[in-house]
Write a structure and sequence with these properties.
The chain has 240 residues and is an all-alpha fold. It has two domains: 124 residues, no CATH class; 44 residues. It has nine helices and no strands.
């Protein structure tokens, strides 16, 4: 029985339905197909109810959970015929909607308009996504050939083709006056640094010469004051 506005339309994710069809093709499914079987097949718990409903409404399983002839035909089909058999199944399942929309050329808005009368109204967007996803998998969608391959590209003659211009990043020319300036500045900076270090060393040596020499024979209190004074002296000298 095709999908019609008289009963609730299917709105399970297209990927879930496609995965189950391909699983049935490669491994089969235990029968009857029920919630437990779908759960073991990897369908999330939150999607089991709508997936069972979609499988039934789309005529993939009967009310008792047995695979329908349409599903069996897709299982037996060769890889070359698989999408053809799938297209035939979809043509029968969506016969009502296909009276108003052509999935091979329709936009999403046009498909959405074809489902305006379907129930539940709040799930119409999901119905449209399922419809388009299934037909796309069967190779029937805008911009695709009936076999599911990409639509052939139009060839453009060499005479009418515009030459492609490659963008290249060109660094701005360096002013001639600055040629070698970086090297000269580096050499000058190195010379200045060495001169500063030499002056600082000589300055520290002159200060140390003025500081009283340490005498191990001093009493402990004098030694402590000397170390304290020397520490203060070194801190002050480092700030110069």
């Amino acid at each position: 029985m095709p999908v019609t506005p008289d009963r609730a339309g299917p709105y399970a994710p297209a990927k879930v339905i496609i995965d189950l069809i391909e699983r049935y093709r490669s491994k089969g499914l235990p029968t009857p197909v029920n919630g437990e079987v779908l759960g073991r097949a990897g369908v999330p718990d939150s999607l089991i109810a709508r997936t069972l409903q979609a499988l039934t409404v789309l005529d993939l399983i009967d009310p008792e959970g047995r695979p329908t002839p349409a599903l069996d035909e897709m299982q037996k089909a060769s890889e070359a015929d698989y999408r053809t058999r799938m297209g035939e199944w979809l043509a029968a399942a969506y016969a009502d909607a296909l009276q108003f929309v052509d999935p091979a050329s329709a936009s999403e808005t046009e498909v959405r308009d074809a489902f305006r009368q379907y129930k539940p109204v709040g799930q119409q967007r999901r119905m449209v996504i399922l419809f388009m996803g299934l037909f796309r998998h069967a190779g029937i969608a805008p911009g695709r050939t009936p076999t599911g391959g990409a639509a052939p590209r139009k060839k453009v003659s060499d005479a009418g083709a515009k030459p492609r211009m490659e963008k290249r990043h060109v660094a701005p020319p360096k002013p001639k006056d600055d040629f070698g300036a970086d090297e000269k500045r580096g050499e000058a900076g190195t010379g200045n640094l060495q001169g500063d270090q030499k002056q600082q060393t000589e300055f520290m040596k002159a200060l140390l010469d003025k500081f009283p020499a340490f005498d191990p024979a001093w009493p402990d209190d004098i030694k402590a004051k000397w170390f304290e004074g020397f520490d203060i002296f070194m801190k002050g000298a480092s700030l110069k």
